[in-house]
Design goal:
Sodium/glucose cotransporter
């Protein structure tokens, strides 16, 4: 038995190694297409809309979805799908309000729009907040890789995480945004396909199949999706997965992430035109809906499996899905599905590296070099962009090592982002919806919004799904107020 298990894991490790080598080679091949910053950061605006849609999905979900979502269903129900409904509403807002502004002129980052509306100081402030936000959130995702690696190798050695980060860094360094988009397509197909395969295999391990799963899980409330209870009480705002928290919270969260954060905006800007960007945005929601439903159902099936067998479930619940795969799937298939989970991690990490580098160069380095009166060629900026990618790779690795005790990786990643998103979305809405707001008001508004959200996070029991809407409202209202006061002071 021990010998057959050894051979099984040897084959699985070979499959994982083959994947890692193959995807790195595939991504690095795009280096020859990189001749300018437009090529490196926007893929030359040549990728088809459907590839960008898949890339949006890969960046939006990542390893946190693959290992975190089954854990949510295992310990709860399907209520997370209410948040996904808010994702659709957000896409309508972005398509109507944000995309027309992004496609006026040639923008490389979301924060250039803030300079166009307010000035250079707010551009640097919003860009700096993005760098901080993405570094923290991506650190959680880097740590999520360690959960998978520790299961595969039976060890918590950090060298395994370093290997994944370095391989991803290599092809991102070489191929830029073009490599990011096309490796995202391959990796998304792999990890969604792996999840579908694992669902049927797990279901096959349960006597009675789906009928038995339904008979056990339905009475336990595991298939409940909607919670329409409404009452303006502290308990109402402490529930993260009600219909109202999902619709409103999901809308604000995705409007902030896809409308103001460079990680997503960069993909929308990489489309050939506004119409293609809009198609990619809405197509990505259909895939997101299917993907979240798939992983939640897997978590529900695993709940029935552990209940039937009487085995103790892994702790924390983030380990349930990858640990079951590694210990129960047939030789080769376990390696394929684990490679799929690593694919999700690598696709998101590569996207983060490129977006962090683009903001560092376009919003900070390039304006500083121009202000100093120095001249740097396009090829010189391209070299600088590649080395900015390396620096961010090292920083994300370091943050990932620190993110070991932050609870559920999915909810930790979302709550970190949600604390900061409100200030970003609030100041963008100030710029797009009003003409009264000025740069002074916008800058103070972001500070006030962040202070409010730090209090909400640390001093209340309000659920993370409400964070962005509260932060946005605080930022928007305070921005109008400070702008009005500063205007009266100048005129008076």
């Amino acid at each position: 038995m021990l010998e057959s298990r050894y051979h099984m894991h040897s084959l699985d490790l070979a499959v994982i190694l083959l994947y890692l080598v193959g995807i790195t080679w595939f991504g690095a091949r795009f280096r020859k297409r990189q001749h300018s910053l437009k090529d490196y950061f926007l893929g030359g605006r040549s990728a088809p809309w459907w590839a960008i849609a898949f890339s949006i999905v890969s960046a939006e979900t990542s390893t946190l979805t693959v290992i975190g979502t089954p854990g949510l269903a295992f310990s709860g129900d399907l209520g997370f799908l209410q948040v996904v409904l808010g994702y659709l509403l957000a896409r309508v807002v972005i398509a109507v309000l944000f995309l027309p502004h992004y496609f006026r002129g040639e923008l490389f980052t979301a924060y250039e729009l803030m300079q166009r509306r307010f000035g250079s100081r707010i551009r640097k402030l919003t860009a700096g907040l993005f760098l901080f936000l993405r570094a923290l959130a991506e650190g959680v995702r880097v740590f999520a890789i360690s959960i998978v690696i520790s299961i595969v190798l039976g060890t918590g050695e950090s060298i395994s995480i370093v290997v994944i980060v370095c391989l991803t860094l290599f092809y991102t360094f070489e191929g830029g945004m073009t490599a990011v988009i096309w490796t995202d397509v391959v990796q998304m197909i792999l990890y969604v396909g792996g999840a579908v395969l694992s669902l049927f295999i797990i279901l096959g391990r349960i006597p009675g199949g789906w009928e038995h799963v339904w008979a056990v899980a339905a009475p336990a409330g595991k298939f409940q999706v909607f919670d329409f209870r409404f009452a303006l009480t502290p308990e109402f705002f402490s529930r993260p997965y009600s219909f109202w928290a999902g619709l409103i919270g999901g809308c604000f969260l995705t409007t902030a992430s896809h409308g103001t954060e460079q990680l997503m905006v960069q993909r929308l800007l990489a489309a050939r035109d506004e119409a293609a960007s809009r198609r990619a945005l809405f197509a990505s929601w259909l895939v997101i809906l299917f993907q979240f439903a798939l992983f939640l159902v897997i978590g529900t099936i695993l709940f029935v499996y552990y209940r039937d067998t009487g085995m103790a479930a892994p702790n924390p619940t983030d380990r349930i899905y990858p640990e079951f795969i590694w210990n129960n799937l047939p030789p080769g298939l376990a390696g394929l599905v684990m490679a799929a989970i690593l694919a999700a991690a690598m696709s998101n990490l590569s996207a983060a590296l490129n977006s962090l580098a683009s903001t560092s160069i376009m919003d900070f380095a390039r304006p500083m070099i121009a202000a100093a009166g120095r001249v740097r060629s396009e090829s010189g900026f391209l070299v600088l962009a590649r080395w900015a990618t390396v620096v961010w790779g090292a920083l994300l690795l370091g943050i990932g090592m620190l993110a070991r005790h932050w609870g559920s990786v999915l909810e930790a990643g979302l709550s970190i982002a949600s604390v900061l998103y409100g200030a970003l979305l609030g100041v963008f809405l100030l710029g797009l919806l009003t003409r009264r707001a000025n740069e002074t008001g916008a800058m103070w508004a972001m500070v006030i919004g962040l202070v409010v959200m730090l209090y909400v996070k640390t001093g209340t029991n309000i659920a993370w799904t409400w964070y962005v809407s509260i932060g946005t409202a605080a930022t928007f209202i305070s921005g109008l107020a400070v702008s009005s006061l500063s205007t009266k002071r100048r005129n008076g």
